[in-house]
Structures are given as C-alpha cells and as structure tokens.
Amino acid sequence: MQTNENASVLAAGTMVLDKRRDRVGEVMEVTTSWVYLRAFGGGREWVTALEDVEPVTVLERLRARVAAVNAERRRQP
Predict the structure, then answer these.
(1) What pTM value is reported for the model?
(2) How many domains, in total, are found in the chain?
(3) Which DSSP state fits 26?
(4) What SS3 class is residue 55?
(5) What is the four-CA torsion angle of 76, 14, 50, 54, rounded to 10 degrees?
C-alpha cells in the first residue's frame, strides 16, 4: 500500500503487516499519511506510515489469530 488512493482500501478491522516493525496489526484508523494499528485481539495501538503497510498473507493472519488465542488463554485462571 504505497499511495493515498490505497488508503481507502484499508478499512477498520483489516489485518495488515507493518513492514517496518515486522508486526501484524488490525487497522483502527487511516489518515492520508498514517495508519493506526493495534495487535489483533487487543493491545496498545501504534502508528505507522501508510507506505509501511501491506496486506497480510493467509499464514500471517493465522499466526496473529493463534497468538491472540494463546494470549487470552494465558490470562485466564
């Protein structure tokens, strides 16, 4: 995703890869230059440049979901 036209493709809830941090995140908000992300399943938000995000592969999406489930199970007594 390298142009502002692609910003409209990034809807809230979409999972993307932050290439700069090598982290998968859920899109919370998109501006003309920035994408606000948070870890899938919750967590602290971070901001990255629009050109630093790309769609995730099926494998990356699965890894993020498994990590969120595992984190939730660790929180349960």
Answers:
(1) 0.72
(2) 1
(3) E
(4) strand
(5) 100
